[in-house]
Design a protein that fits this description.
14% strand; two-stranded parallel sheet; 9 helices; alpha/beta; TIM Barrel; seven-stranded parallel sheet; 43% helix
C-alpha cells in the first residue's frame, strides 16, 4: 500500500502556519507529512499539531550544512546526526535525510566518494542504536541542483554497499532520477531493500503527477508490488491549489 507524505514546505502553502498545514494534511485524509529541517524549539508545537491531526511525521533532513565530502567533517556530521536523532525520537520519525553537499572540483571525485562513505560509517552507529535510518539523497545536477556531488543512483548504491550498515539507505527521488538517468522501475525494483524513502514530482517542471512524462500507474504500481512499506514524499510545486493537485495521484494510488 502506497502511503503518501506531502512536504508541507511546498504543499498546503495556502495555509500560512506550519502547524495549520499539519492539520490540513489530516483533513485531507493523508497519513503523514514531512519538511526539510526541524529545530528543537519547534518540537513541542509539532507534536501537539500532529497528535491533534492524527498524522505521522515521515522524515526530515539532518542539518549538516557543511556536507560530508571531507573526512574532516565526520565528527561534525556525527554531532548533527545525534541532534537530529534526539528530535526524531520525540517526533517518532524513523527516517533522517542527508545529502553529501556541493562538489569540490579541485579534489578528485574518488576522494570525495571515500569521504561520504567515511562520514556515513561514523554516523551509522548512532542511527543503529536509535533504530533510525539515514537516507542518502542523490539529486539532479542538470536542472535543479548544479554543482552538487551526488546525482547518479549507481554511485549512491555503491556508497551504501561500502558503508555496510542496515541503517544507511537511499532516498530515491523519482523526479531527480528521471531527469538524471531514467530507468526508474528497473532501478527501484532491483534495489528496493536499500530504499528507505521516496520523493516524487513529475518531469518536466517538478509539478504534480499527471502534468508530465512519468507513467505513475506503472512506477507506483511497481513500488507497491515490490513490497515497499515506507512513505512516498510529495515534493512538487503544485500548478493549482494543493487539494486539486492531489486528485490524479490519489486516484492512481487508490487504483493499485
Amino acid at each position: 500500500m502506497i502511503k503518501l507524505s506531502p512536504c508541507i514546505n511546498l504543499l498546503f502553502t495556502e495555509v500560512p502556519e506550519l502547524t495549520d498545514r499539519i492539520a490540513a494534511v489530516g483533513e485531507a485524509g493523508l497519513p503523514a507529512c514531512e519538511f526539510p529541517h526541524c529545530s528543537t524549539k519547534d518540537v513541542d508545537t509539532i507534536i501537539a499539531a500532529k497528535e491533534q491531526a492524527g498524522v505521522a511525521i515521515a522524515a526530515f533532513a539532518i542539518a549538516a550544512e557543511q556536507g560530508i565530502l571531507d573526512v574532516s567533517l565526520a565528527e561534525e556530521f556525527v554531532r548533527c546526526t545525534q541532534e537530529a536523532v534526539e528530535v526524531a525520537h520525540r517526533l517518532e520519525v524513523k527516517v533522517l535525510i542527508c545529502g553529501p553537499g556541493e562538489e569540490d572540483t579541485s579534489r578528485p571525485r574518488s576522494e570525495q566518494h571515500a569521504a561520504v562513505v567515511a562520514c556515513l560509517q561514523a554516523a551509522a552507529p548512532v542511527a543503529e542504536a536509535a533504530g533510525i535510518t539515514l537516507a542518502l539523497e542523490p539529486v539532479n545536477v542538470i536542472v535543479d541542483h548544479p554543482g552538487q556531488y551526488l546525482s547518479e543512483s549507481a554511485e549512491a548504491f555503491e556508497i551504501l554497499d561500502e558503508v555496510g550498515s542496515p541503517n544507511v539507505k537511499l532516498l530515491y527521488d523519482i523526479y531527480h532520477q528521471q531527469v538524471t538517468e531514467g530507468n526508474l522501475i528497473a532501478t527501484i525494483t532491483s534495489h528496493i531493500d536499500q530504499i528507505a524513502h521516496f520523493h516524487l514530482a513529475d518531469v518536466p517542471g517538478r509539478h504534480e503527477p499527471g502534468t508530465g512524462e512519468i507513467n505513475w500507474e506503472n512506477v507506483l504500481g511497481a513500488i507497491d508490488e515490490a513490497g515497499y512499506e515506507g512513505y512516498v514524499g510529495l515534493e512538487y510545486f503544485p500548478t493549482t491549489d494543493t487539494l486539486e493537485s492531489l486528485e490524479y495521484l490519489l486516484a492512481v494510488v487508490n487504483s493499485l
